[in-house]
């Protein structure tokens, strides 16, 4: 007995089954001619599917097929994956990375660990402070946020911004320009927090204030952005707000059926395929407290079909029409979070304080609205990726792009692409796709 008469609990007992039966990982390039098979067998535990899918997504691998089974005490997955160009995974370092990350000493063996592949600062960014911002979106908001940061002499090491249904979620990683380390002055943090709240506050309605949160820790960006928009109920908005949502929404089909004899609900999603589609859906189901017991994923380009057998964590299926509608809306929103119609602007320049503020100001002054953005810094190199639309809802005029080239082309490289609504074939991926996660690798020596 423990002190106080309570029964003794050995803290090592919970991980005993994992230590007795460690995860088995097999990366197989022989069984399939077109893709690599990643097979994972492990003791089942809450959230393990998301952990595995998250690691594959962080490596920017394309999941073309998957078979999931975790009903009972054991978890068995088979993923058919390719790289961004549609090729097998043959790089030995990548294969070793997968085996280590998914194996006994990797992510799935310890829930307290966070795999660092998508954590900003993982390479050469040093210490930083993470700021989370969420609120009502409006044209020029990102420019105003970055101006506050620049005026307070903080440097943006990395950032990612999503907008959906007039909501914005943003994770920004800062360091103190004078010390090149995380901010540790509570007074300066308070000043920044107050100024950012003022920007996020909806005019004339103090009850609908945006939120800011400061963190000295590390976070998985994509997962956190989904959570932030979900908390803001971006899924519960009547009507669509832009052309990209309309096009994607018309091709998106979600159905929920009840498998009464097994006690499951069966969620079927059919839409245009794209990278990280499975991650976005599994992430949302997990955050909604649903457990995936079985799943089949297939891609018949340009479309994907994904089927999930789920129950709530309390063991119940989706029982009511209202619950079905909520699950459907949340999955729709999660899929549309990454939809970007319009133009993608890739800017490369030497990093400096105020760079993001300068670029977003020029975009705003030229009538462009940012729907999604990714910023990263490796060494002295900064790369900013913006998905932009005309703020009035019209297609972006190429004369506007030429003005942009003249205004910022002297000090940085600018590449303009058509933002893909989906990826239709491996060759198209080479030309049009861009992964914020791959930025960290692009400029490494």
In a few lines, what is going on in this structure?
The chain is an alpha+beta fold and 445 residues long. The chain contains 13 helices and 16 strands.
Task: Outline the structure in words.
With 445 residues, this protein is an alpha+beta fold. Helices cover 30% and strands 31% of the residues. The strands form 2 sheets. Strands 1-2-4-3-11-12-10-9 form an 8-stranded antiparallel β-sheet. Strands 8-5-7-6-14-15-13-16 form an 8-stranded antiparallel β-sheet, sandwiched between helices. It is globular and about 60 Å long. The relative contact order is 0.12.
Mean pLDDT value: 78
Strand content: 25-35%
Bulk shape = globular
Strand order of the largest sheet: 1-2-4-3-11-12-10-9
Structural class: alpha+beta
Bin the helical content.
25-40%
The parts where pLDDT drops under 50 for at least 5 residues are 1-9, 107-126, 422-445
**DSSP helix count?**
13
Report the strand count: 16
Q: How large is the radius of gyration?
A: 22 Å
Q: Helix and strand succession?
A: HEEHEEHEHEEHEHHEEHEEHEHEEHEHH
Q: Distance between termini?
A: 57 Å
Major sheet attributes: 8 strands, antiparallel
């Amino acid at each position: 007995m423990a002190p106080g008469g309570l029964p003794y609990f050995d803290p090592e007992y919970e991980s005993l089954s994992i230590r007795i039966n460690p995860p088995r990982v097999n990366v197989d390039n022989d069984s399939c001619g077109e893709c690599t098979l990643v097979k994972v067998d492990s003791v089942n535990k809450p959230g393990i599917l998301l952990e595995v899918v998250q690691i594959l997504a962080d490596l920017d691998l394309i999941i073309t097929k998957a078979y999931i089974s975790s009903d009972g005490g054991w978890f068995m997955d088979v993923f058919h994956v390719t790289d961004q160009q549609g090729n097998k995974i043959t790089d030995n370092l990548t294969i070793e990375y997968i085996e280590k990350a998914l194996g006994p000493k990797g992510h799935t063996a310890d829930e307290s660990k966070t795999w660092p592949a998508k954590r900003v600062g993982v390479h050469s960014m040093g210490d930083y402070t993470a700021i989370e911002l969420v609120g009502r979106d409006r044209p020029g908001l990102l420019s105003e946020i970055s101006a506050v940061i620049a005026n307070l002499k903080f440097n943006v090491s990395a950032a990612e911004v999503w907008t959906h249904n007039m909501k914005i979620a943003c994770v920004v990683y800062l360091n103190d320009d004078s010390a090149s380390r995380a901010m540790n002055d509570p007074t300066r943090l308070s000043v920044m927090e107050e100024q950012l709240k003022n920007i996020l506050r909806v005019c004339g309605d103090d009850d609908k204030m945006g939120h800011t949160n400061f963190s000295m820790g590390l976070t998985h960006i994509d997962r956190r952005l989904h959570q932030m928009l979900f908390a803001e109920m971006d899924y519960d908005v009547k009507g669509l707000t832009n052309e990209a949502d309309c096009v994607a929404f018309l091709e998106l089909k979600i159905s929920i059926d009840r498998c009464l004899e097994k006690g499951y609900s069966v969620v079927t999603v059919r839409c245009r395929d794209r990278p990280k589609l499975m991650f976005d859906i599994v992430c949302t189901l997990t955050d909604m407290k649903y457990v995936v017991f079985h799943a089949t994923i297939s891609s018949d380009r340009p479309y994907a079909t994904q089927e999930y057998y789920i129950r709530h964590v309390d063991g119940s299926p989706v029982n009511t029409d209202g619950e079905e509608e909520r699950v459907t809306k949340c999955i729709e929103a999660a899929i549309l979070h990454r939809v970007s119609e319009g133009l993608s602007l890739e800017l490369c320049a030497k990093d400096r304080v105020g760079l993001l503020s300068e670029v977003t100001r020029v975009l705003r002054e030229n009538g462009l609205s940012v729907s999604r953005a990714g910023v990263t810094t490796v060494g002295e190199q900064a790369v900013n990726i913006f998905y932009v639309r005309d703020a009035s809802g019209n297609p972006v005029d190429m004369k506007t792009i030429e003005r942009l080239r003249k205004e910022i082309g002297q000090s940085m490289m600018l590449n303009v692409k058509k933002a893909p609504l989906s990826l239709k074939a491996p060759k198209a991926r080479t030309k049009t796709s861009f992964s914020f996660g791959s930025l960290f690798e692009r400029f490494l020596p």
